[in-house]
Inverse folding.
């Protein structure tokens, strides 16, 4: 443990010193140029290391992944669109896509509803009560997804009938005289996937609440008071005044949670490992790459995910620009 700490500290120290040395050298290089050229080139020299890092760690792997998506399973030759057509022609993968779409459709919307509800209700509490409530709801954000999934797996655990139940839900069910239910095996109407979504909602609600609460507090009090004096009810004020004024924050929360959901892997891996019709795209990529060693399929899955997420990123960038210019 001590050696790991020392190794980590040494790595950080070396990294910081190396970064300082690189920028010192670049600065010296710029100062060695004639004055007009120094001012022109210095900004480009300062951003050059960051651009190089993006190229090495982001652009290059992306290009290699796209190329590999057109190669065979072992990367020995090109197979065109065969990886994509075979994946999409497999019923199991189509079901995986459907599960992922359910996550995309349900979780971001549920996070906004729960976060908005909590933000509005806590806003009416006293300062201390509001702070305590928000701390409790935000606390799951400090727990890793793997840790949260482990906790929630115990919540849904089922033991044989007649034995003591370790899962909270089955403890309640058996207390009323019913048989224990293997919750995570209930694939009818994707019930087990919905239970997994509850766990992610539990972890993301705090993030949604914090942003939306800040946005609600930013609505001018004079506007709300004027609406009340005009006879508007609280429901009308909420939908006609508050929601339109926090629209930008609602979109930001939706996009952020959506991107998180599209990358979801650890929750499903820990709780069901994709069994009982709970598989998602992120976990399927992991299985194709590290279990089946099918690099072509794994790359094709990543490319499909990349194609799906690019329009969202473009919309997010345009949204941020519109917010800044407003």
């Amino acid at each position: 443990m001590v050696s790991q700490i020392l190794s980590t500290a040494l790595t950080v120290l070396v990294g910081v010193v190396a970064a300082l040395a690189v920028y010192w050298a670049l600065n010296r290089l710029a100062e060695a140029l004639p004055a007009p050229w120094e001012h022109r080139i210095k900004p480009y020299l300062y951003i050059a290391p960051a651009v190089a890092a993006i190229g090495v760690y982001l652009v290059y792997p992306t290009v290699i992944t796209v190329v590999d998506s057109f190669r065979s399973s072992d990367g020995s030759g090109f197979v065109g669109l065969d990886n994509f057509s075979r994946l999409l022609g497999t019923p199991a993968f189509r079901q995986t896509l459907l599960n992922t779409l359910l996550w995309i459709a349900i979780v971001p919307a549920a996070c906004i509803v729960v976060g908005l509800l909590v933000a509005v209700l806590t806003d009416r509490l006293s300062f201390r009560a509001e702070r305590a409530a928000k701390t409790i709801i935000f606390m799951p954000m400090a727990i890793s997804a793997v840790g949260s999934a482990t906790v929630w797996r115990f919540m849904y655990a089922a033991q044989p009938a007649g034995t003591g139940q370790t899962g909270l839900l089955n403890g309640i069910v058996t207390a009323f005289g019913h048989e224990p239910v293997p919750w995570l095996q209930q694939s009818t109407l994707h019930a087990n996937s919905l239970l997994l979504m509850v766990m992610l909602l539990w972890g993301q609600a705090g993030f949604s609440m914090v942003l939306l609460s800040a946005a609600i507090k930013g609505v001018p009090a004079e506007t709300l008071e004027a609406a009340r004096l005009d006879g508007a009810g609280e429901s009308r004020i909420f939908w006609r005044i508050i929601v339109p004024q926090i629209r930008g924050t609602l979109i930001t929360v939706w996009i952020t949670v959506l991107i998180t959901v599209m990358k979801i892997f650890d929750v499903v891996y820990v709780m069901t490992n994709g069994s009982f019709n709970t598989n998602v795209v992120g976990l399927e990529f992991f299985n194709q790459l590290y279990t089946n060693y099918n690099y072509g399929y794994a790359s094709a899955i990543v490319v499909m995910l990349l194609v799906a997420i690019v329009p969202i990123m473009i919309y997010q960038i345009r949204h941020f620009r519109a917010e800044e210019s407003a």
Summary: The chain has 14 helices and no strands. Residues 85 and 300 are 10 Å apart (CA to CA). The longest helix spans residues 35-68. The chain has a mean pLDDT of 89.
